[in-house]
Specification:
Helices cover about 75% and strands about 5% of the residues. By secondary structure, the protein is mostly helical. Strands 1-2 form a two-stranded antiparallel ribbon. The chain is elongated. It starts with 5 loop residues before the first helix and ends with a helix.
Length: about 160
C-alpha cells in the first residue's frame, strides 16, 4: 500500500473523476492548453470539483494556519487596539482572496495527473516529460493543416518517429 501525500489525498477528496477514458483528441488539446498555461476544460479530462468539499478542505487549512496566530495575538498585551483590527481585516481579505488561488492550484495538479494517466494509455512508449512539447507542436501543426480527426493519430506517430 503506497502512502499518498496530503496534496493527493486532498485532490482525491475534492474532485470526482469519471471512469471513462480520455479521448485521444482531448488529450492532445489538454496537453497543448496545459503547456501554454491555459485553463483546461474539466470535461475534456472527465473530472469535476465538489465546491462544498473544496470549501471544507480550505477552511481546515485556514484554521490550522490562523489558529496559532490568533492565540499569539490574544496572549500579547496590545498597546494600540488599531493594530489587531487592521491585522484582522488583512487576514480576512487574504483568506477570501486566496481561495481562488487554492482551487486553481488544485485544478492544475489534477489536470497534470490526469494528462499523465491518459498519456500512459495513448503514448505508452513515449515518456511525458520528454515528448509533451513535441506532441504539442504536432497538435498545432494538425490544427493549422486542418487534418481530419481520423488522421491525427497517424500524423502524430509519424512526427514522433522522425
Amino acid at each position: 500500500m503506497s502512502k499518498k501525500s496530503l496534496k493527493d489525498r486532498m485532490i482525491d477528496y475534492i474532485f470526482t473523476v469519471s471512469k471513462q477514458p480520455v479521448r485521444y483528441k482531448d488529450l492532445l488539446a489538454a496537453n497543448a492548453f496545459y503547456n501554454e498555461g491555459m485553463y483546461v476544460d474539466p470535461a475534456k479530462l472527465n473530472f469535476r470539483m465538489n465546491i462544498t468539499k473544496a470549501y471544507f478542505a480550505y477552511a481546515v487549512i485556514c484554521v490550522c494556519i490562523l489558529l496559532p496566530f490568533i492565540a499569539l495575538i490574544h496572549l500579547m498585551p496590545s498597546i494600540n487596539n488599531h493594530i489587531p483590527i487592521l491585522g484582522v481585516i488583512f487576514a480576512t481579505s487574504c483568506v477570501f482572496i486566496s481561495f481562488n488561488y487554492f482551487t486553481a492550484w488544485l485544478r492544475d495538479k489534477i489536470t497534470l495527473r490526469l494528462i499523465k494517466e491518459a498519456w500512459l494509455v495513448h503514448f505508452p512508449y513515449f515518456p511525458y516529460d520528454k515528448y509533451n512539447k513535441k506532441i504539442e507542436e504536432l497538435y498545432h501543426e494538425i490544427r493549422k493543416k486542418e487534418l481530419p480527426r481520423k488522421d491525427w493519430e497517424q500524423y502524430v506517430l509519424d512526427g514522433l518517429l522522425k
